[in-house]
């Protein structure tokens, strides 16, 4: 796992660099800035470079699992794709995870309502109902 994770993180950084220079030469953005030692730092891990068992996150080349305070629970059916570990200038680390999750489709609605926001009334619906603040 450790050797492949290093390969994937290097490939990911080269892919991001290629995208940045492609956008620069297409005149969609400015010249890409270089990362500095004291600015925000980040590393991206693909699904083969980390293990998640539902409670703890273990990254490649790190022996112990990370001590994480979760901001929200992840769905049990979600499949994690990438984990981005970033460190800000105050030495705080944050982990953001990209996951694939299936979402149930909402039922079709037969009726439609238009909303007009106005100055004298908060909103007037297409049914004629007036909403006050």
Short description:
Helices cover 18% and strands 28% of the residues.
Account of the protein in words:
With 133 residues, this protein is of the alpha+beta class. It is built from one helix and eight strands; from the N terminus they run αββββββββ. The strands form three sheets. It has a three-stranded antiparallel beta sheet with strand order 1-4-5. A three-stranded antiparallel beta sheet has the order 6-7-8, with no helix packed on it. Strands 2-3 form a two-stranded antiparallel sheet. The radius of gyration is 23 Å and the shape is extended. 5% of the residues are buried.
Q: Report the biggest beta sheet as strand number plus sense, adding barrel if it closes.
A: 3 strands, antiparallel
Question: Helix-strand pattern, N to C?
Answer: HEEEEEEEE
Tally of separate helices: 1
Low-confidence stretches: none
| Helix fraction by DSSP (H/I, runs of at least 4) | 10-25%
Q: Helix- and strand-based class?
A: alpha+beta
Distance between the termini: 58 Å
Strand content: 25-35%
- Strand runs, count: 8
Please list the strands of the largest sheet in the order they lie side by side.
1-4-5
Shape: extended
Mean pLDDT: 82
Work out the radius of gyration.
23 Å
